[in-house]
Design a protein that fits this description.
The complex is a heterodimer of chains A (345) and B (254).
Chain A: H1 2-10, H2 18-37, H3 41-50, H4 53-57, E1 75-77, E2 96-103, H5 109-120, E3 126-132, H6 139-148, E4 151-156, H7 178-191, E5 200-204, E6 210-211, H8 213-219, E7 225-227, E8 230-231, E9 238-243, E10 249-253, E11 269-272, H9 273-278, H10 294-299, E12 308-310, H11 312-315, E13 320-321
Parallel strand pairs in A: 2-3, 2-5, 3-4, 7-12
Antiparallel strand pairs in A: 5-11, 6-13, 7-11, 8-9, 9-10
Helix pairs in contact in A: 1-2, 5-6
Chain B: H1 3-8, E1 11-18, H2 24-35, E2 41-47, H3 54-61, E3 67-71, H4 87-101, E4 110-114, E5 120-121, H5 123-130, E6 135-137, E7 140-143, E8 146-154, E9 157-162, E10 178-181, H6 182-187, H7 203-208, E11 218-219, H8 221-224, E12 229-230
Parallel strand pairs in B: 1-2, 1-4, 2-3, 6-11
Antiparallel strand pairs in B: 4-10, 5-12, 6-10, 7-8, 8-9
Classes of the chains: A alpha/beta (345), B alpha/beta (254).
Pfam families (chain B): Glyco_transf_43
InterPro entries (chain B): Glyco_trans_43 (IPR005027), Nucleotide-diphossugar_trans (IPR029044)
Catalytic activity (chain B): 3-O-(beta-D-galactosyl-(1->3)-beta-D-galactosyl-(1->4)-beta-D-xylosyl)-L-seryl-[protein] + UDP-alpha-D-glucuronate = 3-O-(beta-D-GlcA-(1->3)-beta-D-Gal-(1->3)-beta-D-Gal-(1->4)-beta-D-Xyl)-L-seryl-[protein] + UDP + H(+)
Chain lengths: 345, 254
Amino acid sequence: NEELWVQSVLEMPKRRDILAIVLIVLPWTLLITVWHQSTIAPLLAVHKDDGGDSRRDLAAGLDSKEYCLSDRDIVEVVRTEYVYTRPPPWSDTLPTIHVITPTYSRPVQKAELTRLANTLLHVPNLHWILVEDSQRRTPLITRLLRDTGLNYTHLNVETPRNYKLRGDMRDPRIPRGTMQRNLALRWLRETFNKNNSQPGIVYFADDDNTYSLELFEEMRSTRKVSVWPVAFVGGLRYESPKVNAAGKVYGWKTVFDPHRPFAIDMAGFAVNLRLILQRSQAYFKLRGVKGGYQESSLLRELVTLNDLEPKATNCTKILVWHTRTEKPVLVNEGKKGFTDPNVEI
Amino acid sequence: PPRRSEAALPTIYAITPTYSRPVQKAELTRLANTFRQVARLHWILVEDAAARSELVSRFVAGAGLPCTHLHVPTPRRYKRPGLPRATEQRNAGLAWLRQRHQHLPPPQPGVLFFADDDNTYSLELFQEMRTTRKVSVWPVGLVGGRRYERPVVENGKVVGWYTGWRADRPFAIDMAGFAVSLQVILSHPKAVFKRRGSQPGMQESDFLKQITTVEELEPKANNCTKVLVWHTRTEKVNLANEPKYHLDTVSIEV
């Protein structure tokens, strides 16, 4: 600052103003020295933030037309004290949320699971059931799960390949993730006794969606099956259950086949564990399921429309987004691969 | 982590340019979920907008971490495909940091990095960048047409660049692949991202050569052999079924 000031002063053309220069520079030098040493400096900084002048100083040396920073625009939000461990300590009173995530190997897999884990690590009493579409549990997933510190169960089942089609094509008659979700349901039924009163909620969370933390707290109070809107499905900003004045679901606000028994996305509902254990034969239908009817194939065995519990303020808030990740451009890998395959991505 | 050791940690400043599109709130949500796991992280969110939007303002109010909400619009002439993006927004973040620390006594230990809102960050990355003395670098996954790009390291020093695109750049690195100590930013007050004379893809290189040399770079992530950040991109959303007429009776934010 001092340097800039002196420089602009020296650009003044008249030499007779040297005395003026000294008279101007000297007090600033003294002031700045005092400023650095003074204990009131922090207070001055605060005062400056409340005033407006410092904002215009920002424009010095930059094209001031391209900056519009004014006091009102700078909003600082102070975090309330939020001391937590990662994941939060287990609570005896909260129902456990069993999050079932099918996953399969592709370049973005580790990235997707990493950012999903970063979200799940906030949620108390969360049990992550990660089911790989693979012949064996892979080292990548094994390491990832261990390193997160989450409470997890690592399963795998391979969707049969369709050997008639070339390449790595799975059987297209079986929707992606179905066998994996069903395996998780079976694991729950084998692990938990339906007479055991361990309260739990089951939620199907695909690895590329985006979940707010609020969503998990909404689903925790599920008695049978709860539902809520999902963004970016069915070619819409969001799809949503239709809720009447009595707080009951009576239909579905969708464009794509709203007459499905349950016109809802996988990310739009949660089921009480007790119900999963009681209706022990309820699974996602494996074959012969029309597009968009997967969710119905399970839900119609569990619950009727009338029993659905609307969440997210009577289904008026978006707490989950059906985001999809672009396939990364790997053209520079060439046919044989260029980068070191031992470097895990 | 207990408060006492938190106070001694350098603050990490994440400068995130953001712009309005359907997935904006989703991207910011999952980014916040990651950032909230990191101690002493200060988020500088800069909207590409002429005014603060309600969506981002509301989001910031409930974000759950220290957050500074700025905005600066990109001039229309720079919004052509092929031109660098988010230049004005990143510079606004730098300007805010410089102004804020103008009157505070040094040293104010801090590290800043540029966190685009659609990338994916592992928690380990923040541990690695926190020890940055001047400028640190690391590999980035899913970029440059490859599984990853990375600085090539020999004897703890960066000697070259393993990249799929224009390896002849002085700093052949992605925006997500480096962090700068606050001290360096404050001691180079004129270092900004440039528009004039900057070719596409040269943003990072043109910026870094104003503040450091290849020799000075600090390799992180196990001598740049681990991928701790991925240049993920989110698909454009299919809104084909949104009605032109007979809009909904309620207005719901996505």
